[in-house]
Backbone:
């Protein structure tokens, strides 16, 4: 806390300019006021409005760098040979450091220089972003074929049915699987996990200290408006992350070290890997720029004196309502203050001793526990979808990663923000009671389930892959693998081709028995065909690349229904938050919110990506192998993938619906009991009031 100025009883009457001048003494050596203290009064770093602007930009860029990995998750899997379970664990790992340290933020409170600590956290986020790009620079150039990286002209010829040239290939491939290769792979994966952990640690002080700083020095009536602006701008971060991913994944991964003669891939090729690392550099640069002003803000600034006239009209979604900590008056007793104001009076040992008791007391509250469980279920669905929706759209509808990210960034995330805003507006304008808040949450979750139900039937069938998916009714497939036995096709090669007449896909031209290739120029690009294919009816030709999907047009209706379900689910955000604020004791509100976010991280945001990734891995029908270990999945059973991915979403939404139904039933029962008590007390009051009036009448008679 800052030094007391003058007598305690006279402090509120101190003139504003004197307060600002004396506040400036903290920043001068020896605590003496500088001669030009009056010139520092209009400094922009003593304005809470400027702090709100800076913090909005910082949280926007911080969420952008946190969400960028989710936009490029399938690309990272392809580049480094990761399964969906491993990539899900990687995406969830930033919650580990965050969860471990977030509890102690409430202890430090105003003991520390909050702006500088926010700036230090932002620097850690920048370092984490730079560390995420490090695997790209220490790895060899991406090889999408079996030729050397400097001989890209042999791309298509390397996969032809040429026995004499392909026989020694497996030995060469096995010789490259040395212990050094495996150590390098583990090093690359370890660096990414370390970067994600550092990203979570750096994010710890940013939001809590920023919110408390705004709440301490903003006018009590302006604080909800400033927090609303902060949350509204912050929520655009994930949308910008997917938009950035859409742009960067159109660029080739090795754009900084392109081979001579260029590459023969296009973004539609299943072997394409985009410049996933470039987005981390852009995001880290944005965080670095946003972090600079925090080293110039004071530890304490003059409290804002004037109320904004339009504060009640802007962004009611982030309003903390009448129960927000910003409305705590300085004259309230200490036990009524939030934990962040109590913590400075406790030592670390005392804080650790007090925390379990308050935690158990809060968890024994039935409404709080049910609300948190419902939010855990919804957060599990959101975390899994945010991590793997892009990959799901790629695989299910055969679209590029850039196209999938564009859909998510332009439709899914903005509609979710609209749902959160609508929920806040309904709570604020209709003055919803806890019972009606629970009813709103129940209806929102129910409509979310209804919108998700048709998604089970909207998808594309599994591609017909020769030798992988059994399709006995297709001519020519019964020749596999006998027709390509003389070709000595390597098992680890991947250069898919498609037979347009039967819509059957082959792993390589060699697996189709093709011995010749033909390149045709069309629309400023070269289209490659393979001929003399012994495994194809009529001998071909077959075209390079995967077969086009017959139902790609369903991706837009699918994402629209998914977005509408997201609107209904996010509609419950503010009402459920108000159920927590209005359902626990005043002195436990801050800790209850902290426990809520901690449980959401531990029970939802950490395990959900791993659960969804494991479910996705179980639908794989063909794995790529690298040095004897299972790497990335190349083909999925689309029907099984859709049923399990959407099934998990449906399961978690059902759990949330059940919790909200129990909350509504409990609150309805409490409301009935309260009305009965009020009616009985009113009847007793009427009887008591009527008795004195009857006695004089009887005496007169």
Residues:
């Amino acid at each position: 806390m800052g030094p007391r100025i003058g007598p305690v009883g006279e402090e509120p009457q101190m003139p504003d300019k004197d307060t600002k001048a004396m506040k400036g003494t903290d920043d001068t050596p020896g605590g003496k006021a500088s001669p030009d203290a009056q010139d520092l009064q209009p400094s922009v770093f003593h304005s809470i409005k400027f702090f709100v602007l800076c913090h909005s930009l910082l949280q926007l860029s911080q969420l952008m760098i946190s969400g960028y990995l989710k936009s490029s998750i399938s690309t990272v899997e392809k580049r480094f040979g990761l399964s969906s379970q491993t990539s899900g664990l990687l995406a969830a790992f930033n919650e580990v450091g965050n969860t471990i340290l977030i509890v102690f933020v409430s202890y430090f409170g105003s003991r520390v220089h909050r702006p500088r600590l926010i700036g230090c956290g932002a620097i850690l986020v920048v370092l984490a972003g730079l560390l995420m790009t490090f695997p790209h620079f220490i790895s060899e150039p991406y090889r999408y074929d079996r030729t050397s990286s400097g001989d890209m002209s042999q791309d298509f010829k390397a996969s032809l049915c040429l026995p004499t040239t392909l026989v020694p290939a497996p030995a060469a491939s096995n010789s490259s699987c040395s212990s050094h290769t495996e150590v390098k792979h583990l090093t690359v994966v370890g660096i990414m996990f370390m970067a994600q952990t550092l990203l979570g640690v750096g994010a710890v002080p940013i939001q809590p200290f920023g919110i408390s700083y705004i709440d301490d020095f903003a006018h009590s009536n302006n604080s909800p408006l400033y927090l609303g602006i902060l949350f509204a701008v912050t929520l655009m971060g994930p949308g910008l992350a997917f938009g950035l991913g859409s742009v960067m994944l159109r660029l080739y991964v090795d754009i900084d070290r392109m081979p001579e003669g260029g590459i023969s891939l296009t973004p539609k090729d299943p072997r394409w890997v985009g410049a996933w690392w470039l987005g981390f550099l852009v995001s880290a640069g944005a965080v670095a720029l946003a972090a600079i002003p925090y080293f110039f803000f004071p530890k304490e600034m003059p409290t804002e004196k004037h109320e904004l006239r339009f504060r009640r009209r802007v962004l009611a979604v982030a309003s903390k309502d009448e129960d927000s900590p910003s409305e705590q008056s300085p004259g309230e007793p200490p036990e009524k203050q939030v934990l962040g104001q109590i913590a400075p009076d406790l030592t670390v040992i005392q804080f650790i001793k007090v925390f379990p008791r308050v935690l158990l007391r809060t968890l024994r509250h039935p409404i709080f526990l049910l609300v948190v469980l419902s939010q855990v279920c919804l957060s599990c669905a959101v975390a899994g979808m945010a991590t793997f929706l892009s990959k799901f759209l790629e695989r299910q509808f055969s679209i590029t990663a850039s196209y999938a990210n564009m859909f998510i960034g332009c439709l899914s995330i903005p509609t979710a923000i609209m749902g959160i805003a609508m929920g806040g507006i309904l709570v604020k304008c209709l003055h919803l009671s806890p019972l009606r808040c629970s009813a709103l949450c129940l209806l929102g979750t129910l409509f979310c389930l209804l919108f998700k139900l048709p998604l089970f039937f909207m998808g594309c069938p599994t591609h017909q892959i020769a030798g992988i998916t059994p399709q006995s009714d297709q001519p020519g497939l019964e020749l596999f693998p006998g027709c390509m036995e003389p070709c000595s096709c390597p098992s680890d090669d991947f250069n898919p081709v498609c037979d347009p007449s039967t819509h059957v896909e082959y792993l390589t031209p060699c697996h189709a028995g093709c011995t010749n290739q033909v390149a045709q120029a069309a629309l400023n690009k070269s289209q490659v065909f393979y001929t003399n294919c012994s495994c194809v009816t009529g001998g071909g030709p077959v075209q390079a690349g995967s077969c086009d999907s017959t139902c790609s047009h369903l991706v837009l209706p699918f994402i629209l229904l998914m977005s509408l379900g997201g609107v209904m689910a996010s509609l419950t955000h503010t009402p459920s938050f108000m159920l927590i604020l209005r359902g626990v004791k005043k002195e436990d509100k801050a800790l209850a919110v902290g426990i809520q976010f901690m449980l959401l991280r531990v029970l939802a945001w950490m395990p959900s990506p791993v659960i969804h990734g494991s479910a996705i891995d179980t639908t794989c029908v063909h794995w790529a192998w690298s040095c004897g270990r299972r790497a990335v999945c190349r083909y999925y059973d689309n029907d099984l993938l859709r049923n399990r991915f959407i099934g998990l979403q449906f399961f978690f939404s059902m759990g949330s619906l059940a919790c909200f139904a129990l909350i509504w039933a409990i609150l309805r029962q409490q409301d009935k009991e309260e009305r009965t008590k009020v009616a009985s007390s009113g009847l007793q009051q009427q009887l008591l009031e009527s008795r004195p009036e009857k006695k004089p009448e009887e005496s007169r008679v």
Q: What stands out?
A: Strands lie at 464-465, 497-499, 504-506, 516-522, 525-531, 542-544, 620-626, 629-636. The chain has a mean pLDDT of 78. The chain is about 55% helix and 5% strand. Residues 180 and 559 are 44 Å apart (CA to CA).
